[in-house]
Automatic annotation (TrEMBL):
GO terms for biological process: translation. Belongs to the universal ribosomal protein uL30 family. This is Large ribosomal subunit protein uL30. Part of the 50S ribosomal subunit. The gene is rpmD. It comes from the Bacteria. One of its GO terms (cellular component) is cytosolic large ribosomal subunit. The lineage of its organism: Bacteria, Bacillati, Bacillota, Tissierellia, Tissierellales. Residues 4-54 form the Large ribosomal subunit protein uL30-like ferredoxin-like fold domain.
Length: 58
C-alpha cells in the first residue's frame, strides 16, 4: 500500500474540538512536523476535514 506524507502548517489552537482531535489522530503535534501514513480512504477523509491546517508533501 502506498504512503502519504502530511505536514501540519497551522496550529490547531483556537480551532474547534473535532479538528484538534483529528490533528492528534493523524499523529501531528508541532507546526512543521511531517508524518507518513498509509494512503487509505479514512486518512484522506481526515485530511479533508482539516485541509486548511495540513498539506500533503512529496
Amino acid at each position: 500500500m502506498s504512503t502519504i506524507k502530511i505536514k501540519l502548517k497551522r496550529s490547531p489552537i483556537g480551532s474547534i474540538e473535532n479538528h484538534r482531535r483529528t490533528i492528534k489522530a493523524l499523529g501531528l503535534r508541532k507546526v512543521g512536523q511531517v508524518v507518513e501514513k498509509s494512503d487509505t480512504p479514512q486518512i484522506r477523509g481526515m485530511i479533508g476535514k482539516v485541509s486548511h491546517m495540513v498539506e500533503i508533501v512529496d
